[in-house]
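re: ur question from earlier - yeah i can do the single chain one, its not a big deal. heres the input i used so u can compare w yours
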Amino acid sequence: MKRLIVLFLFVSATLSAQYSINGIMSPMEGYKWILLYKIEGSKQLFIKNTQVKKDGEKGVFKLSLPADSEIGFYRIKYSMKKHEFIDFLFNKENIDFEFNPKNAENSIVFNTSEENKIYTSFKEKIFNAQYTLDSIQSEYFRNPTSKIKGKYRNSLKSIQKIEAKYRQDSQNKIAHHFIKASLRYNNPEITENPVKYINNTLSHFFDNIDFSNSILYNSSFLFDKVSEYVFSLNYAADPNQKQEVYKKAVQVVIEKIKPISFKADIINYLISKFAETKNAVLVDYIFANYFEKLPQQYQNLDFKNKILAQLRVAIGRVAPDFSWTEKGKNLSLSELKDGLSYLIIFYSTECSHCLREVPTVYEFMKGMNNTKVIAFAMETSEKTWINYQFTMPRWHHVLGLKKWQNTTARTYLVNSTPTYFLLGMDKKIISIPENIDELKMLLKELN
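and the output i got, formated as tokens:
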């Protein structure tokens, strides 16, 4: 009988055992709720939530996980509107951490959890060491000397020591998979020219990444690496060349992924990322060359239709036509033939930012004859615009009444002013610059 009681007590204690996740936000900054998710592939599985309690200037919260919770990659969200979150590893241990919610990634400190302490320590040390090595390489491009070559060799040895130490220390831990996959290729000797350096970086970027690793797959790591490769490392200033560079990068990534379920997730992920920047050329390219070649059960048609609906006005699409009267003549965008390229500016004389920025664009474009401008004024009345248009001669000027409810503005999905659209001679959208600096760079390329 005693044995049965002891066994019952042991089983009960085992079943009720929990792991704690305790966090401190400093300062609290008005955050009220914490939501806990587990990352599985491209999905976030909701686990539970809790309130943040005020403790002076700090906010504290506590969560618990049952003893049978799956190990892996978890996420705490503390702001749904701004998508602010913290990712961490869970491997059957209590976790205590502190962070500044305004700079979570760079401020988080784990007080307990060997998994997370090792991984965050590795990331900090390898980042600093790699930054030093990259700085030496950049210095050599500017001033190639044997002394700098020596500095490079010593710096590379430091990186190799850090890599070896953390690979050893993380054995039998989840963190080991991420540390191993994070190791970056560095040339054994300093690289002689920038082109070779960039080519080496691109060709060896995925050397240590195993796309069939289920631990990496069930995290944000692989998605972040794919995003870094496609959107950060592959770059071209010329809009047309940029599209070709993107296509090549997408091809490299997708061909490296063999598990069909993950391939489908990455394809959808890349489509979503290009859709965010309204790059219809790449969205259409990925749909045609990869999405539609997936087995039928992996083609999410609701997802496809939703994306295509978002891209009525996007890079690669013909700009929607509109008409206006100018100096007694009826003109339309589709029939303009006075430029090799076109810039549509949606602005308003009721927008103080526009009144500063649009004249700056006008001054910058003096002498740029290849690109013709259609300045579309979104107004509640024509009163101010009537005279304002004459301050920018040589531009086409269009009055769009009803401001945000204007039919053309709504067709172009304009939700802020100024908004820019760059078109080719065929009136296809070649770029949607996010700011004036990007616009200036593109205009230089076109003129």
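The first strand starts at residue 18 and ends at 25. not sure if urs matches, ping me
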